[in-house]
UniProtKB/TrEMBL annotation:
PANTHER family: SHORT-CHAIN DEHYDROGENASE REDUCTASE, SHORT-CHAIN DEHYDROGENASE_REDUCTASE FAMILY PROTEIN. This is Short-chain dehydrogenase. Coiled coil: none annotated. It comes from Rouxiella silvae. It comes from the Bacteria.
């Protein structure tokens, strides 16, 4: 667990500044694509600061691993399977957050993918389309729905 007054290279400064001594006890945080990578780091950090975390990921298995790790460390988290590039699923996620928790204080949108030009020939199923869908449609859809409250 990261001490609450120490920043790592991946620690977003906005998270450090949220509460007294870095604590955000009882705040509801939604972290999109929190099953692995930067999203997982954000979810774990928020939970270590006292937030209740909704771990959203397209893979329920990956999301559950993150939520389990948070709960094992004494935090509160639930996992939700959602593809934020699909507008109806992003809308459902926003309604779910408000319906279950009564509000949403923090949104971290880690949705996105990379597009490697040198691997283009090896990739079989439309990598550019996937890249654009997740980085443009997924980001705007999920952020707008969650910020507006569904």
């Amino acid at each position: 667990m990261i001490p609450h007054n120490t920043a790592s290279p991946q620690t977003p400064e906005s998270v450090l500044a949220l509460g007294k001594d870095g604590r955000i006890d009882g705040k509801i945080a939604l972290v999109i694509c929190a099953g692995r990578g930067a999203g997982r780091v954000h979810a774990m950090l928020l939970a270590s600061r006292g937030a209740n975390v909704i771990v959203a990921d397209s893979s329920l298995n990956d999301g559950e691993h993150t939520a389990d790790a948070i709960r094992s460390a004494g935090g509160r988290a639930i996992a939700v399977a959602v593809d934020v590039a699909v507008k109806s699923q992003a809308e459902m996620l926003a309604k779910y957050a408000y319906g279950i928790f009564g509000g949403l204080n923090i949104l971290i949108n880690s949705a996105g993918s990379t597009y490697v030009l040198c691997d283009l020939e090896e990739q079989s199923d439309h990598p550019l389309e996937t890249f654009l869908t997740h980085n443009i449609n997924g980001s705007s859809c999920s952020v707008n729905q969650c910020v507006s409250g569904g």
